[in-house]
UniProtKB/TrEMBL annotation:
Subcellular location field: Cytoplasm
Protein name (Swiss-Prot/TrEMBL): 23S rRNA (Adenine2503-C2)-methyltransferase
Annotated source species: Roseateles terrae
Keyword list, A-Z: 4Fe-4S, Cytoplasm, Disulfide bond, Iron, Iron-sulfur, Metal-binding, Methyltransferase, S-adenosyl-L-methionine, Transferase
Domain of life the protein comes from: Bacteria
Domain Radical SAM core: 93-319
Length: 337
């Protein structure tokens, strides 16, 4: 298990200067074979580094290896990924060259509707393991957008996620606004993201406008009210020029009432953001239900008419154990199917 900083130190010990390190990292993150640009590498890199490169690249590939791939009807594919120590996380290949990555094994926030939250935090995913998920996905297909919406709460592994974002936004060749940091809302995030050399777009998980209900649904999220979260989000959006993506998992009979819709209009109308409504995927282990699609469409339409830019989305690959943490949970149990 090592981080990007550890990798850079190892490269430096092999005689690499900053430009050499960037060259090697680019090969890794962009999943280029060593045969590609071989002459240039031979001409450019110090001998000790060149000699060590095949073993080093194999070691980097070993940071994230594919266990299972489950293609969905929508063009997505859910990947169960093994990390170097045998722990597993999920990545999701999204339609239109996107990838959703995991930043933790398990998660400490404990959202009531999430399978990942049930295990608590098992361990952090290192910055190199985050980048390795992208390199692994790129060996399957192009990746032009990376969203940090897989297992884990990125703000609880903030420095590692920011280190990975910096690599992806530079040598990883991914546009900064196509890197999406997703969080339940943590005061440290708003300050830290604005300071980095690569400023990602921001997704904020709102799920309800009611403070008490939010505390129930997201029991260990930082104590920010929905209004605090939107205020901080609005400042970040104006500073970066990227709209905030407000996430709303639609739970039947829980957060889909008219009172919520009125409060959403008060909270979000005129804000620089978009509301993504994602109907929940029911799982037998958890007590929440997926709302009817027509009802969800009606809610999105009514919000849109009242001035809140609202998009109704289905979570990718929802036909293949689609909720976050479900593949991992299934892999840990004997299969019933
Ligand atoms: Fe953690 Fe996200 Fe699951 Fe909540 S929804 S428990 S923040 S992984």
């Amino acid at each position: 298990m090592f981080s990007i900083a550890d990798l850079e130190q190892r490269l430096a010990a092999l005689g690499a200067n900053a430009a050499h390190r960037q060259r090697v990292m680019r090969h890794w993150v962009q999943a280029l074979p060593l045969t590609q640009g071989r002459r240039q590498l031979e001409h450019y890199l110090p001998h000790a580094l060149l000699a060590a490169l095949p073993a080093l690249m194999a070691e980097l590939e070993g940071l994230a290896t594919l266990v299972e791939s489950h293609p969905g009807a929508d063009g997505s594919a859910r990947l169960l990924v093994r990390l170097g120590d045998g722990q597993t996380v999920e990545s999701v290949l999204l339609p239109r060259d996107g990838l959703c990555v995991s930043s933790q094994v398990g998660c400490a926030v404990g959202c009531q509707f999430c399978m990942t939250g049930r295990d608590g935090l098992i361990r952090q995913v290192t910055s190199a393991e985050i980048v390795a998920q992208v390199a692994l996905a790129r060996r399957q297909r192009a990746v032009k957008k990376v969203v940090f919406m897989g297992m884990g709460e990125p703000s609880h592994n903030l420095e590692a996620v920011m280190e990975a974002i910096e690599v992806l936004g530079t040598v990883g060749n991914i546009g900064h606004k196509n890197l999406v940091f997703s969080t339940v809302g943590d005061p440290r995030v708003f300050e830290r993201l604005a300071r980095g050399p690569v400023k990602p777009a921001l997704a904020l998980s709102l799920h309800t406008t009611k403070d008490a209900l939010r505390r129930e649904l997201l029991p260990r999220a930082p104590r920010l009210t929905p209004a605090d979260i939107v205020d901080a989000g609005e400042r970040y959006a104006r500073e970066t020029g990227y709209p905030i993506q407000y996430q709303w998992t639609l739970l039947d009979g829980v957060n889909d009432g008219d009172d919520e819709l009125d409060a959403i209009v008060t909270l979000l109308k005129g804000k620089y953001g978009v509301l993504n409504m994602i109907p929940y995927n029911s799982v037998p282990e958890l007590p929440f239900q997926r709302p009817d699609w027509d009802k969800a469409r009606d809610i999105a339409r009514r919000l849109h008419q009242r001035g809140v830019l609202t998009k109704l989305r289905d979570s990718a690959g929802q036909d293949v154990d689609g909720g976050c943490g479900q593949l991992r949970a299934r892999a840990a149990q004997p299969r019933k199917r």
